[in-house]
Amino acid sequence: MKKNLIQLNNLSFNRGDKVILENVSLTVKQGSVVAIMGPSGVGKTTILKLITGQLRPDSGNVEVAGKCVSSMNHKNLYKLRRNIGVLLQNGALFTDLDVFENVAVPVREHSNLPEVLVRRLVLLKLQSVGLRGAVELMPSELSGGMARRVALARAAVLDPALMLYDEPLAGLDPIGASTIIRLIRDTNEAMEMTSVVITHSVEDMMQLADYAYIIANKKIVGHGTPDELRQNTDPQITQFLNGEIDGPVPFHYPADELTQDLLG
Amino acid sequence: MPAKKTKLITLRKPVQIVGRGILFFIQVLTSFRPSLKQLKAILSQVYFIGTRSLVIIMVCGFFVGMVLTLQSYLELSKFGATDSVGTVLALSLFRELGPVLTALLFSGRAGTSIAAEIGLMKATEQLSAMELMAIDPVQRVVVPRFFAGVICVPLLTALFNLTAIAGGVAYAVYIMGVDSGIFWSNMLSSVEFQRDFMMSFWKSLVFGIVATFIAVFSGYFTTPTGDGIGRATTQTVVVTAVLVLIFDFIITALMSWT
């Protein structure tokens, strides 16, 4: 039986007085692709930041590879992060470096490999995302999809055990989105990684993920394989999966009665 | 709300900013590693920051020298002391104008650019990406820019003084006809290395620390939005100007006293 690589135990997180997550527990098995889905602003990226230790929970804890991230010091956190690749929403490429140098940054920083090997490693990673021919381009010369692929190559260049993807398909055209989906799956299988994908793109993730969690109203409202979720009749899940405007997640932001507001 | 409590709340933010500034300053100093990689990064920033400010420093220096000579020549001619125009020029430049104006120009040209650059890196999540790659953004982004600025300001001050003296010579000797031998000998005899030249150096060093630190601090802690970056650049110039003038008085008082 495969081990749990990530474990969130009764996690709660607040921003000031606002509760973002309340008693959230989830597990991610080694080697799987797990999607965390939910409407915008529900706290999906917060979960990613809690896993990487950028944020600390108010209660509960986060374990990655059996180590408690929530209580780690700065040094151990950096040590752990060397084994985690993160693809941020906009790619976050370094704008003053070309494609080659962007992908080479983690290699140069965390190894003493000679330049010949750095070059080979970077070119192989870029080949895997189909952008070996773009080594000399600057980030400003790349399309959104290409930038995302370069960022993917950079995140995976040290072959981390865990890859985290924050909205990897946001703003991409269908071709760009399918390319990224295929790359996530291929990278996960080829490198025997574990992947967590934060997204609100339902159809794409139902194809890609082995298991998915749906978050709404500060909690996990459903989880299971894509087929199990499709058959679930919980209104919170059906509203999200079918994209219904109104439902348990209301269309209107909480406010006083309209008549009361208009007539004073 | 009681007046005393309101006053405390009003004071809390500035105190927080000063506290954060002190901690960040310590973090920047302790993040410096004397490695080849870091030295290369600092030298590369010295090149960028230096070249950014070179033209403005030289042009402004030349005209400051000219206008200073023109003003002092007009006044000194009333007493028949136009030969001392070189002395007035050199002492004003070394003691005050050179370091102060260079720091202000540096802040306006390179400081704002540093603040905007770091602020934009924050807004586009480049700093977060570094942290997630286990790369310390302070060590990689802030330290090279900070130390490069500290190296650049004294060098730029020397250049400012040089071009200002060239401007003074051009006006006094070539336009107003002051004897060049007298001009130079008066200047040489009145400028003391320890009192004047070193005052220029120490001031420029402190102003370099102040101007560059304010720039990196404003950029690093800015709100990651367009509006936030705008405020960070404005804050860089305003805070630097105020602090440079305060430190100018303190250093002058200390050096005059000793």
Write a structural description.
The complex is a heterodimer of chains A (264) and B (258). Chain A is built from 10 helices and 10 strands. Chain A is of the alpha/beta class. Chain A has a 6-stranded mixed sheet with strand order 6-7-8-3-9-10, with helices on both faces. A 4-stranded antiparallel sheet of chain A has the order 2-1-4-5, covered by helices on one side. In chain A, helix 6 links the parallel strand 7 and strand 8. In chain A, 38% of the residues are buried. The mean pLDDT of chain B is 91. Chain B is built from 8 helices and no strands. Chain B has helices spanning 3-30, 36-76, 85-123, 126-132, 137-175, 180-190, 193-220, 226-257. Chain B is elongated. Chain B has 258 residues and is an all-alpha fold. Chains A and B meet through helix 2 and helix 3 of A and helix 4 of B.
Main sheet properties of chain B: none
Helix content of chain B: over 70%
Overall 3D form of chain B: elongated
What is the CA-CA span between the terminal residues of chain B?
49 Å
SSE order and pairing:
The complex is a heterodimer of chains A (264) and B (258).
Chain A: E1 4-15, E2 18-29, E3 33-37, H1 44-51, E4 59-64, E5 67-68, H2 74-81, E6 84-87, H3 99-110, H4 115-128, H5 144-156, E7 162-166, H6 174-190, E8 194-199, H7 202-208, E9 211-216, E10 219-224, H8 226-231, H9 235-242, H10 258-263
Parallel strand pairs in A: 3-8, 3-9, 6-7, 7-8
Antiparallel strand pairs in A: 1-2, 1-4, 4-5, 9-10
Helix pairs in contact in A: 3-4, 3-5, 4-5, 5-6
Chain B: H1 3-30, H2 36-76, H3 85-123, H4 126-132, H5 137-175, H6 180-190, H7 193-220, H8 226-257
